[in-house]
């Protein structure tokens, strides 16, 4: 750009704030109809996947574009079992930091560290990258359980051969096998959080992978991005809010006061859905059922009240994080683990997108509409 042009430079008026509605790439993994409130993984409706499949089948689907045969599923499960082991050095680091860091920070550091203990860490063949994806799916539940146990000075619990990812996670977390109903709820939660097109954390993974950096680096970017309360961190923030409200009688005034201060109510609103998030719909039913079963409907009913008020006032709809909070709370899971559990599921979608990015890569590098000062001379420091 010559000097005259730079002096007269005016930014393009067409910038989409937050990249809203910008199609930033092509993908075959996930489709969202934001108007109708539908979510498909590789053409399969999320509701049907929750009813008829397991998280392991969905992981296979996201990576391969097809649901597995019985043999393919067995093979994947064998591979996951083979990689269910954390290097002792990695466990030592978890022990060192889990008491002083947020679980998402410990998870991010741990995933980053795993790269140093992967013998094929630098290998970039599709086969090696696929194996890294399997390793991460196998290890994330172990890391999340290890975070909880080490910060409470409890011994780690080894995964039990033959248990599903959902069942093993609850087992490693609590030290006893969960009942099949709770396992089913956890499994359904993992299916529903597995992928969501070009959400912020997946996009971060793809940007990193797009430089041809490695899988661990790309996933580390994703974890850091998921942590924020406008994204995955909202599930913990919802439970904080419910506890702060404390009593259903206070819910309406609480929400109203927040809206008056123009503050956001966590668990509502979405960049793509303009109606109820289909995952929230399913989680709402699960939360209702779980509340009845456990004889503890306080949090479900309070969530319903907040929904009623904010929907009447602002026309906003729940997103996936809203009912996740009351479901995990009633399952007895510590609140600050909710986002890490989200990551334990989303690792499947992140890695699917990273592999897809490598398959047909082009560096992701948009431009900025410059609005800073025009060209000007540098004034020497003693003259400023
Ligand atoms: C897994 C996930 O990531 S799901 C999302 C989880 N995040 C949350 O639940 C946090 C709360 N929600 C939000 O902050 C937003 O709805 C987001 C981040 C999800 C989407 O953001 P955007 O698409 O950028 O919408 P934006 O923040 O511009 O909101 C548009 C309007 O709706 C309002 N709005 C959106 N969400 C909310 C909310 N949760 N509470 C109150 N008002 C809201 C905004 O104040 C804004 O109103 P205005 O036009 O009068 O200023
Ligand atoms: O798609 C988004 O922007 C956020 C979301 O719901 C998810 O990542 O599951």
TrEMBL record:
Biological process (GO), any one: tricarboxylic acid cycle
InterPro entries xrefs: 2-MeCitrate/Citrate_synth_II, Citrate_synth-like_lrg_a-sub, Citrate_synth-like_sm_a-sub, Citrate_synthase, Citrate_synthase_AS, Citrate_synthase_bac-typ, Citrate_synthase_sf
Reaction(s) this enzyme catalyzes, per UniProt: oxaloacetate + acetyl-CoA + H2O = citrate + CoA + H(+)
Coiled coil segments of this chain: none
GO molecular function: citrate synthase activity
GO cellular component, one term: cytosol
Record pathway: Carbohydrate metabolism; tricarboxylic acid cycle; isocitrate from oxaloacetate: step 1/2
Domain of life of the source: Bacteria
Active site, per annotation: 270, 321
Keyword entries, A-Z: Transferase, Tricarboxylic acid cycle
Similarity annotation: Belongs to the citrate synthase family.
Descriptive protein name: Citrate synthase
Organism: Ammoniphilus oxalaticus
